[in-house]
Design goal:
The protein is mostly beta strands. It has one helix and 15 strands; from the N terminus they run αβββββββββββββββ. The chain has one helix spanning 2-26, and strands spanning 39-54, 60-78, 83-97, 100-101, 108-110, 113-117, 121-130, 135-145, 166-179, 182-194, 202-213, 217-228, 248-260, 264-277, 284-292. A hairpin with a 3-residue loop joins strand 11 and strand 12 (217-228). It is globular.
């Protein structure tokens, strides 16, 4: 029973990171569409290493040191003046956990393990409902493709995906304002995520505010939240299958970036959670380079 509980916890918190990462990347464009033949492409490295997690009761408990690293390609490309095609593809994902050792006998309960694979991938379409106005609005539809490994390692406790095809719809509303040399932008977002294979469906929401100084230096603050509908069909006794269902969080991210010649750029961010259920409690970090067409 102890081994089963450890397996369930590791699965829960590892997969929650994947969900958080995928939401962060997909939310990058706000309510604006790129325009025909224009686009935004980013290569980034994201990671988290943690020895504590939020339990299903929202409390922080220790866990075996667990890490996840994702090398991700993200892109938005304008098929027309109203329609963007989007993809968020973790081309390389590494998940690992240290050994679980008994404090009394020194026995290795669960050995250290790791897996390397691609990750679950989001593909989507964004439609500009209101464009070229002070306030712009867009609607998006995403498919979450189960390309990652949902049961890796010696005992199936490591994942780079959840093994289920989900569908998400979202609505973004954005605006901008200029104050001297500073351009600012603001967005809010709401969405619904329909999950399969017995996982609970989700309500997602977010907001961001950013500034661009002299067209070069960028600062962004984001809030992102997820609430579970708690309609899972898993039985409570099935600990090995309950992972990642009913995940919840309210998270924040600080990001800074620098634009080079208006076409290329670099960025870095740090994110963590104000509160959560079944997610890691330690901060995540990311660095990346991007290009605009």
């Amino acid at each position: 029973m102890a081994k089963l509980a450890i397996k369930s916890n590791i699965k829960s918190i590892t997969l929650a990171i994947v969900l958080l990462l995928s939401y962060s990347a997909a939310y990058a464009g706000g309510g604006w569409v790129s325009g025909k033949g224009k686009g935004f492409f980013k290569l980034s490295e994201w990671w988290v290493v943690a020895d504590a997690h939020y339990t299903d009761a929202g409390k922080i408990d220790p866990n075996v040191t667990t890490g996840l690293f994702n090398t991700t390609l993200y892109g938005e490309y304008g098929l027309s003046d109203k329609i963007d095609l989007m993809v968020n593809f973790p081309v390389f994902s590494r998940s690992y956990s240290n050994a679980v050792v008994s404090s009394t006998t020194g026995e290795v309960i669960v050995p250290a393990q790791s897996i390397n694979s691609i990750g679950d991938t989001d593909v989507g379409v964004k439609y500009g409902l209101v464009r070229n106005k002070p306030i712009v609005v867009s609607a998006s539809f995403y498919l979450g493709l189960p390309l990652g490994n949902d049961s890796g390692g010696e005992n199936g406790t490591l994942q780079t995906g959840d093994g289920e095809l989900n569908q998400r719809v979202s609505l973004d509303i954005s605006t901008s304002a200029t104050f001297g040399p500073v351009n600012t932008f603001y967005s809010v977002n709401v969405g619904l995520n329909n999950r399969n294979k017995g996982f609970s469906d989700e309500f997602r929401y977010g907001a961001e505010a950013g500034m661009i100084l002299d067209g070069k230096l960028i600062g962004i603050f984001r809030l992102q939240g997820l609430k579970s509908f708690r309609n899972s069909t898993f039985e409570e006794t099935n600990g090995a299958s309950l992972f990642a269902s009913d995940t919840e969080y309210l998270s924040y991210t600080f990001e800074v970036g620098y634009e080079i010649k208006g076409k290329y750029g670099i960025s870095a961010n740090m994110g963590s959670a104000f509160s959560g259920n079944l997610i890691l409690a330690d901060p995540s970090y990311s660095i990346g380079v991007h290009m605009k067409i």
